[in-house]
Fold this sequence. Notes:
By secondary structure, the protein is α/β, with parallel strands linked by helices. It has helices spanning 16-29, 48-55, 69-81, 99-109, 180-185, 198-208, 234-251, 254-277, 281-297, 309-312, 320-326, and strands spanning 6-12, 35-41, 60-63, 85-89, 93-95, 113-122, 137-139, 145-147, 150-151, 154-155, 166-167, 175-179, 212-223. The strands form three sheets. Strands 1, 2, 3, 4, 5, 6, 11, 12 and 13 form a nine-stranded mixed sheet that branches. A two-stranded antiparallel ribbon has the order 7-8. A two-stranded antiparallel sheet has the order 9-10.
Amino acid sequence: MTIKPIAVIILNWNGEKLLTEFLPQVIGTTDNSIADIIVADNGSSDNSLSLLRNRFPQIKTLEFDRNYGFAEGYNRAIGITRYRYTILLNSDVATTPGWVNILYDYMESNPQVGACQPKLLSYSEKDRFEYAGASGGFLDRNGYPFCRGRIFSSVEKDSGQYDDIISIFWATGAVLMVRSDLYLEIGGLDKDFFAHMEEIDLCWRILLKGYDIKAIPQSIAYHLGGGSLPASDPRKTYLNFRNNLLLLHKNLPDSTRGKTLFRRRLYDTAAWLKFILALDFANANAILRAHNDFRHMRKGYTSHPAIDLLQTRKDCQRNIVIDYYLRHKTRY
């Protein structure tokens, strides 16, 4: 039996409704001659597994004994499956005809590319980019993430303005294609992040290994998004601030890490003050907790790279805080 080159892995935890809505579209648009669709179930207590057995018997499943979270769930699934390529696909993503073929053909023709993503559009507003990846992700000089099609909360409409294939800093975790051996070699997703920015950390490590990352907008997917935490939730604020600090601490060299983190503390202080003036004490406190917990977590990371990608890459020279809030530049 011919072994297919691609595993499309959907991590599921109590996602019966999402599987019911999105899985038929994924099945209908995925070329099953090159890709197997696999649902890795993180110990669901709803009817997800019975739904898969009864309605989608052609889908392979991995059944974990409990919820290992996003990062560890995928790490376990990829360690078990070991296909040449893995596509991490969120359970709330709808794919389009030919999507996987386009990504596969590009990766096969470009062995220096370690990971890639399609153009990610909003499932609810299909003419608009989706927040969590748009047409490729970047970091600015201070480590703030933004996308080709989204800066902070300003999301652009898609009129084909970002349809060229380009090198990017990070690919969205909603639809992320990666070379499986490379993923395992660099340690996979970091479970310490829990949620938010774990794919940016993964991509940073892919870049440090000398590989490129690409946005391939000829492949298109639609992401529902917003399924975990709303933007105003203090828990989301906490994770975003803590994980951004951890991201910088892990992946910057000794020579520049202190200066960059010092600048970030200044910016984070301004964000804290903004919440205080708005009487949003829950989110202000979330920033304080993020910094406090980061101080404890950083002790677990003692090995750092020799190269500062924020300084050496041309696409990291912007300051999007100044551009966005002072110059009112809301487009990529």
